[in-house]
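User: Before I run my own analysis I want an independent prediction to cross-check against. Here's the chain; please return only the structure tokens and, at the end, one sentence I can use as a sanity check.
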Amino acid sequence: MSRMSLTASLASATALIAGAALVAAPAASAAPSRGPHGLDRKVKAAADRLVADGAPGVIVMTRRGGHVSHVTSGVSDKATGAPMDHRLLFRIASVTKSFTSTVVLQLAAEHRLSLDDTVDRWLPGAVAGHGNDGSKITIRQLLAQTSGLNDYTPDPRVMSDPTRAWTPEELVAIAMEKPPQYAPGTSWNYSNTNYVLAGMIIERATGRPVGTEFQRRIFTPLRLRHTSYPTTDPSFPGRYVHGYYYDYGDVSTQISPSSARTSGGIVSTVDDVARFHRALFTGRLLPPKQMREMRNVRPVDDDGVVEDYGLGVARIRFSCGYAWGHDGGFPGYRTWTYTSADGRSQAVITYNESKLEYDKTFRADLAKAADTAFCA
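Assistant: Structure tokens:
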């Protein structure tokens, strides 16, 4: 799917990524705590199934009102056999887009920009060539994924040197080499280019690095103590989940996050991600007008993921009703987030293997696990 473009593009650079697949250690599981109505037992069974299907390890965080629970299965590190732990850091990938959209909407609420501003208003000349025209694309269309701009991530140059420090301008320039897929606002396609441009606009509008804006507007106020926005350093600032890519083993610290930037560069934990989404969807981060903008959705089918997409967030239908959130994939990592409109029900699921993306059995079991975690 398009959210896995960074993962897919890594295939073009496999010869440059050192190491072979590691031999899986015997799975280890943390015992679930007691939850309401046996929820943890059901979630544990679902997580174990995902590990049986091929995921090295799985973390599932759930909330029911004031009760928060964590269930894990499998390993966080194949080399040592260390079990999954909900406190470990991982790359949240495109879940970053919800953070980026939130900051842009905060700036709109402060009248420092307008969603109807064109890209050229803030970034003159950045979107040009081969029919691309920044004077015809609005900030709203960037956030809604309706700009028509191509995604830069499938280009083999992006991962030809996984450790390269890419600038946002370089990533956007790659996308400008192809004509737009459609006239702005007339259709929908998932493009990381849109959110790199949104990050550039944040910096132009504030005069500060986007990481500084994330910190002062979201990370610090919400006490997201384990959340960070690395730009070029592929290491982690603490203990982390090891991410695995097909037969090439552990790639968790081999790829510069500069290839993702404000489209997918944040590092966090399941609890911090859930705290952010709960604050966001219950109105703590945005005024009502901007929340309405964010939740103005259109139905989309993103390579098999059927949902309603708004401005950096998606609405997903479950057996018990709707959830809000975003999913994300980065080489070695995959995360799915779900929060009810009132914030009382939540689920965050993350696992550390890329090769399962198109496995039908795994995807079916993942859908069941998500419905159980959010609804049961």
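Sanity check: The chain is about 30% helix and 20% strand.
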